[in-house]
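User: Sequence for Glycoside hydrolase family 3 C-terminal domain-containing protein below. Tokens please.
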Amino acid sequence: MNLEQKAQVLIGTGMFMDLPDSVAKLFFPEEKKEIIDTAYQQMVDHIRTYLPGAAGFSAEFPELNISSQVLADGPAGLRIQPTRKGEDQTYYCTAFPIATVLASTWDTDLIYKVGQAMGNEVLEYGADVLLAPGMNIQRDPLCGRNFEYYSEDPLVTGKMAAAMVNGVQSNGVGTSIKHFAVNNQETNRLSVDATVSQRALREIYLKGFEIAVKDAQPWTVMSSYNKVNGTYTSESHDLLTKILRNDWGFEGYVMTDWGGGSDVVAQMKAGNDMIMPGTPEQIERLQAAVKEGQLDEKVLDQNLIRIFTVMFKSPKFKGYQNSNKPDLKAHAQITRQAATEGMVLLENKENTLPFSIANAAVFGTTSYDFIAGGTGSGDVNEAYTVSLMEGLSNGNIAVNEELATTYEDYIKKEQAKGEKSDNWLTVLMGGKVPVAEMEVSTSLAKKMAATNEMALITIGRNSGEGGDREPVEGDFYLTATEKGMIKTVTDAFHAVGKKVVVILNVGGVIETASWSKIPDAVLLAWQGGQEGGNSVVDILTGKVNPSGKLAITFPVSYDDTPTHTTFPGHEIEGEVDEAEDLSGFSFMKRVPWEVFHEEDIYVGYRYYNTFDVPVAYPFGYGLSYTSFKYDNIKTDKDAFDGKITVSVDVVNAGEVAGKEVVQVYLHAPSEKMEKPEATLIDFGKTGLLQPGESQTLSFEIEAKDLASFDTATSSWVAEDGDYQLLVGSSSLDIKGAKDFSLPEFTVVEKVSEAMKPIKELNILTKK
Ligand code: BGC
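Assistant: Structure tokens for Glycoside hydrolase family 3 C-terminal domain-containing protein:
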């Protein structure tokens, strides 16, 4: 390969999405065209046809046996263009439940199955790598992309991601775990500099990635847009070489996020092997850097070897003839099941649910315009979304037609007003913003209560790439109209002895404490993918007993979160030099911006439970239609000797079959280093237990599970002293505890010294 060809493989071949002209102009300004030579342009035009709608393609050189790699989004399913000019055939993909739903199942076997199905669509539609899973920590409830991520907890995140990667890759296609790392907000994501302690990095923000790399070896990793401790992640040798490769043993290649970072030379040196989506200017720059002696060509060779190692495994290289006909029907069944398993029952007074009713009055605009998933690159082009109305009809529950018509007319009128989002990404990617809620009058509520067996009310929220949510009414908080609707409808139905169920069709956390005790039941349905309406009805009718539990805390108010004073950061003096930016993404403004992770390791329940802050619903919480007894909690030894096993018999003590998620938390000594009150170190889910049936779950705890990250020595250490294993049904509902001791201070693992903060950081401590 000559230098030019090397540069052309390392730098992607451009932005391929079918863009409206106004946006396309930003990517392909006409005046820049002449620096692309014709042979290259012909190749690019050719590979464009491989998979319309895929996010990126690497160059191919058939004469050198180098094939293109087709990279397509993720993470809720494969994102491609559903139709092609001049063709009758459609290319719809399955919209699986958003990652937050998948995490709430706490069922890694199920996530593996979802991954298997998703990966089959990747293979059969002709992609090589799925740009998924997203696995940033849900640091703050308002991150606009939380729906694409799993949890506030790194263990849940890592285990879910590993299961997903293993499932997708079982098809012989790759994944790209993203966005590595600390991409915990959308506000100024291209320029934000996050200052985070090395301990919080290792224990919270990197831990999930570490688990996924070690347990699943994803083919690729996607570095993030942001900076951490002063350096763009895609230019950080500490992150991409010392930590990812040397400490964890990652064997694949790293690609940038689309337009991430600013200096291709620094990226190459850091170990960011592929630049996406890539521009001709970057190809030129790379060659010039080698010729001018700023970059050793050997660095490029090393990065190419990593790219080729993955390429050799890829379907395109092997000449796989994709069918374009994945079994969408079978996958619809999997998504329906996965969504029911991840829905969380928050309230259920006097066994309101499950119900057996013939008709219902359905309130809330979102009931009529159900949301399958969030917006942006994580949005899938599915053939259909089962709304709540269709779900009810499939479940033989009649809905009040008069009310339905009133809502449908109202929604049409509101949509015609055309209140459009001004976020270019939302516009570009067709995000769905729920219309403002309709006022429900007392007379309407009373009329419905007289003739219908029950009321269902849906509250909807949506968010997505390019923007964060806000702690205001209509977003984190309910509006007065929404609260009024819940109150008015509940009063009217209660007055005639009938019940009310609220369904939350949301992608992230909202405020619940001020209203959730008003109705009789509250089901957190999340955004359940294209079968969402069917999944909700499966739960409401008891066809499936809910077994989902929260993988993120619901605080009482936004001001109770540990991040409310620091999220999403603030503008700083100075300018980001956009002249240097050759990524073709200069239209996405880089505002000088910084954020300080002052809560440090106290993210999510680690904060609430350590500082005794009351919450609306704790991490790990979720109700069932049955109840479980925890018997015989025991450990196999009193002193740790490299391992300890804790086990519990879970008994279904109720009257219907069900599954239980069991969580194991660690309370560790804090003589030398402070510790959160409790940290999740393992979890498991029972099979479907019949009434009276029991199952023993065992958890093997290893030395690393006891360890915290000691910055002074760059090592994972476990203090000698008394520990406690807490076995619970949620982080606040501990069923039993077992003590054990660690006789000696143990250095579990020494790792690279890396990623030191360069700005002063005042971290939260217990003292
Ligand atoms: C997103 C990534 C995505 C990529 C390609 C970026 O803007 O942050 O998650 O994979 O675009 O579409």
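The pocket of beta-D-glucopyranose is lined by residues 55, 73, 131, 178, 257-258, 377 (CB under 6 Å).
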